[in-house]
């Protein structure tokens, strides 16, 4: 009987430690896009080079831990002149701030989705953000989708104040396999 209990404890102990799954995040499986607006229109863009990890227990999406780094030189938009301007000190200041990152600090269940809170470092400044997301993990696949807005002025991007809207829409899509 003692051996059976020991075997059971060992089996469940190894299952608990094997429950977390880590997914590599890359520009191939992780898309981060943005839409900037102004009274006479909008511009679409995003970031091509992304790397990081997502670690989660498939049975509890609130265990999700995200760590994402963006190569700001990979910024693109629907206008080449705008892309160059976005990389300038007026916006991202890519020469002095070549990387941006997001590291989650908390994930809370909110109906059929979650709220992800974390530290977003952009333009050399770190601010806490919270955004909604749908997260699913099935076998060796994880999917995350999110749409939310940030106020660009919180990260010191005030160029065009009054001519360019302060709120920028972000969309994140992750479809990662182990």
Shape: elongated
CATH class: Mainly Beta
Number of helices: 2
Structural class: mainly beta
Mean pLDDT: 91
Q: Sheet with the most strands?
A: 11 strands, antiparallel
Helix content, binned percent:
10-25%
Q: Which second-level CATH architecture applies?
A: Beta Barrel
- Lateral arrangement of strands in the main beta sheet: 1-4-5-7-8-9-10-11-2-3-6
Task: Count the beta strands.
Answer: 11
Could you give me the name of the CATH homologous superfamily?
A: Lipid/polyisoprenoid-binding, YceI-like
List keywords for this structure.
mainly beta, Lipocalin, 11 strands, 13% helix, 178 residues, 58% strand, elongated
Report on the structure:
- The chain is mainly beta.
- An 11-stranded antiparallel β-sheet has the order 1-4-5-7-8-9-10-11-2-3-6, with helices on one face.
- The protein is built from 2 helices and 11 strands, in the order H-E-E-E-E-E-E-H-E-E-E-E-E.
- Helix content is 13%, strand content 58%.
- The two termini are 38 Å apart.
- It has one domain (27-177): Lipocalin (Beta Barrel).
Can you summarize this structure?
By secondary structure, this protein is mainly beta.
Task: Annotate the secondary structure layout.
Blueprint: H1 2-18, E1 21-26, E2 30-38, E3 41-47, E4 50-57, E5 60-71, E6 75-77, H2 80-86, E7 99-110, E8 113-122, E9 125-138, E10 141-151, E11 167-177
Antiparallel strand pairs: 1-4, 2-3, 2-11, 3-6, 4-5, 5-7, 7-8, 8-9, 9-10, 10-11
């Amino acid at each position: 009987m003692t051996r059976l209990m020991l075997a059971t404890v060992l089996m469940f102990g190894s299952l608990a430690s094997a429950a977390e799954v880590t997914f590599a995040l890359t520009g191939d499986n992780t898309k981060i896009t943005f839409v900037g607006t102004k009274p006479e229109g909008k511009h679409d863009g995003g970031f091509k080079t992304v790397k990081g990890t997502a670690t989660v227990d498939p049975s509890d999406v609130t265990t999700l831990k995200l760590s994402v780094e963006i190569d700001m030189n990979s910024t693109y938009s629907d206008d080449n002149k705008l892309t160059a301007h976005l990389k300038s000190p007026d916006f991202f200041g890519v020469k002095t701030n070549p990387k941006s990152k997001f590291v989650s600090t908390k994930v809370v269940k909110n109906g059929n989705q979650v709220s992800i809170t974390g530290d977003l470092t952009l333009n050399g400044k770190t601010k806490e953000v919270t955004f909604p997301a749908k997260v699913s993990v099935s076998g060796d696949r994880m999917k995350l989708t999110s749409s939310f807005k940030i106020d660009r002025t919180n990260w010191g991007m005030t160029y065009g104040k009054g001519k360019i809207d302060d709120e920028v829409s972000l969309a994140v899509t992750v479809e990662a396999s182990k």
